[in-house]
Amino acid sequence: MHWGMQNKYLKHILVVMWVTTALVMTPASANELRIITSYQSDMVDPIVQAFVLRHPDLSIRLLNKNTHAAVDEVLAGNERHFDLIWASAPEAFVVLDEGERLNDIGHGAFVDFAYSAVGWTWRTPYDGYVPQEWNDLLDPVLVQDIAISHPLRSGTTHSLLETILQDRGWQAGWAWILELAGQLNTISARSYGVLEGIENGDFSIGLTIDFLALTRSQRGLVFRYGRPVIVIPARIAALQGGAQPVAAHAFMEFILSPEGQRILLNPDIRRIPVNSEVRAELSESLDPSIRAALNFSWSRYDPELAARRYWQINQLFEAFVARDLLLRRELWRRLRAVNNVPAFEIDRVRQLLTWMPITEHQARSAPQDRETLLEWAERSYGILRDVEALIRELERQ
User: Domain residues of the chain, as ranges?
Assistant: First the structure.
C-alpha cells in the first residue's frame, strides 16, 4: 500500500482513538465498531491499526475502563451499544455469559486470543533481594517494599488472587494473602499505578501480570513469573445490544488469524498467542521471560471457579486487607519485633493473623449486600483487636 494512503488511514485511526476519551458517546453510525476494553492504547493501537488498514470502510471507537467497571456497565444494559468487550480477566466473561449479556456470532459466547500469567516486577539496576518463588515475597527483608493494585479496580489483581487461591486452596491461599499484607507499601487504585511506582522508586517489587511489565522493559522493568505458572486466557466477546455483529465478527476473526496473532508479539504488546503454530514460528523472537515461561509446566486457570466467587474475593480483600491495611501491617511489624518468648506463642498469634474466618461456602452463600460487607469488615477488625491484645501481652514479657 502507498504510504500516503496508509498515512491517511493511520491519521483517521488516531482521531477516532482521541474521540473515545469522551464520556458522552453519540449514536453509532452504520460503519462504526464500538469496543469496551480494559487495555491501554499501547496494547490496542497496533491491532486496531492493522485491522482498519484491511477494513477501511470501518471506524473503531474504543472506551477504556477497568474490568470491574466494564462488566458493571454491560450488565446494566450496555446502553452505549458496545459491540465487543476485550479484556484480560477471563472470569469477567463467565459473569457476562451467565448474565446473558454475550452474543454468539460464530465463536461461542467468548474466545481466547492470548495467554498471560502473573508474577512480580522490579526496576534495574537493583541490588536488593529478588524473590524467586511466591513464598519469597513474604521474607521480612521486603517489609513495606511491595505494591499491589486493588481487585475492585484491577482485573489483573483479581486474577493474581485467584492464582494463589486456586493453587493453594481457600485457607492456605488466604493465609498467604493476609501475610503478604504485612509486606505491602501500598494498594494502588489501578494496575498501572504499580508500574509507575516501581519506575519512580516508591517501592521495589510490584505484583502484576506479565505483559504490563514486559512492555516497559525499555524503562528498566524486569519481570519474573510466579511458580507454578498458572496460565490465564485473555478473551474477547461480542455483546448483546451491539449494532455491528458483522464487523464484530470480522474483528474477532482478525485477532485470531496468523497475522493478528503475530502482532501480539509486538514489543509494545508482549502477549503469548493462543496459536501454537505462531508461537513455534516466532519462538526465537519471543522475550526470554516468555520463552522461559513456555518451558515451565503450566497449570490451567479455572475462570468458571473464579466467576462463581468473583464478588466474594474482591470484597473479602477489601474487608480483610485494604480496609485496615495500616493496622494489619503494624501488627505484623510488632509481632516480628517480639523477642525472648516461646515460639509456640508467636505461632499462635501468626495463625490468628493469617486466619480467614469466612469459609468459601459461607462467602458464596452470603447475600451480596451492604450488611454482608459490614459483617466481614467487623470480623476482620475483631481479629485484629484480639491480635493486638495478644501482642501487647507478649511485649510485656
Answer: 3-115+234-300, 323-397
CB 73 within 8 A of CB 23: no
**pTM as predicted:** 0.82
Give the span between the Cα atoms of 118 and 151, in whole angstroms: 14
DSSP classification of residue 104: -
Q: CB-hemisphere CA count at 13 Å for 42?
A: 14
Say how far apart CA 390 and CA 387 lie, in whole Å.
5
Q: Picking from 147-151, 169-173, 201-205, 229-233, which range would have the lowest pLDDT averaged per residue?
A: 229-233
CA-to-CA distance for 118 and 158, rounded, in angstroms?
A: 11
Q: Is residue 216 within 8 Å of residue 195, measured between CB atoms?
A: yes
> What is the rounded CA–CA span in Å between residue 172 and residue 37?
33
**Number of other residues whose CB lies within 10 A of the CB of residue 43:** 24
Q: What are the tens digits of pLDDT across the range 368-378?
A: 999 999 999 99
Do the bridges between strand 298-300 and strand 229-238 make them parallel or antiparallel, or are there none, so unpaired?
parallel
Query: Among residues 41, 44, 40, 110, which one has the least CA distance to residue 74?
Result: 110
Q: Are residues 71 and 153 in contact, defined by beta-carbon separation less than 8 angstroms?
A: no
| Residue listed under C-alpha cell 496508509 | 6
Structural class in CATH, domain 3-115+234-300: alpha beta
The DSSP 8-state label assigned to residue 102 in this structure reads B
C-alpha to C-alpha distance for 236 and 109, rounded to whole angstroms: 9
Query: And the C-alpha cell for 35?
Result: 469496543
Phi and psi for 109 in degrees, rounded to 5?
A: -65, -35
Per-residue pLDDT at 114: 93
Closest CA to 92 of 209, 192, 233, 210: 233
Dihedral angle, C-alpha 59, 278, 191, 72, nearest 10 °: 50
Cell of 345: 506463642
- DSSP of 279-315: HHHTGGGS-HHHHHHHHSPEEE--HHHHHHTHHHHHH
Cell of 21: 476519551
d(CA 327, CA 168): 26
Residue linked to cell 491501554: 40
CA dist 276 and 266 (Å) reads 17
For residue 152, which phi and psi values (nearest 5 degrees)? -70, -15
Average pLDDT score over residue span 241-247 = 95
